Amino acid sequence: MSKSRAHVYVSGKVQGVCFRASTRDKALMLGIRGWVKNCMDGGVEAIFEGEKDAVDKIVTWCKSGPPGALVKKLDVHSEAYTGEFEEFSIAYEYA
After folding, report:
1. I need a labelling partner for 54 at 20 to 30 A (CA). Which of 13, 30, 34, 35 fits?
2. Fold that domain 3-91 belongs to in CATH
3. Each residue of 17-60: pLDDT tens digit?
4. Full-model pTM
């Protein structure tokens, strides 16, 4: 299968609703590597790397997120797969 990388930015009510933790759980379930973090403007940013089907699934999931989230906009940028990540993590610095 082919590898894929997506860089996403999610805006709306996505902080304070367990968006990062839920994203991490979903990524681990799908075998995706990368990171997710809160942004100072109230959004959430993430990079997903893995099998194309798995990356597509998590990007689709990000359109609604966990219960309590209200996603208003999802920006998705396809990037070249790098294989730089060993795991999926929550980053705690603000972007």
Report:
1. 13
2. Alpha-Beta Plaits (3.30.70)
3. 999 999 999 999 999 999 999 999 999 999 999 999 999 999 99
4. 0.94
- Residues 27, 34: contact at Cβ < 8 Å? yes
* DSSP category for residue 11: E
What token pair was written down for 33? 């590597």
Contact 36, 21 (CB under 8 A): no
Cβ–Cβ < 8 Å for 4, 65: no
- Give the residue-averaged pLDDT of 56-73: 97
Separation between Cα atoms, residue 65 and residue 86, nearest integer Å: 24
Query: Which residue is catalytic, options 5, 20, 24, 33?
Result: 20
- Whether 20 is a known active-site residue: answer yes
Domain boundaries, the chain: 3-91
- Residue 5 falls in the annotated catalytic set: no
- Under DSSP, is residue 59 helix (H, G, I), strand (E, B) or coil? helix
Q: Select which of 5, 24, 33, 38 is catalytic.
A: 38
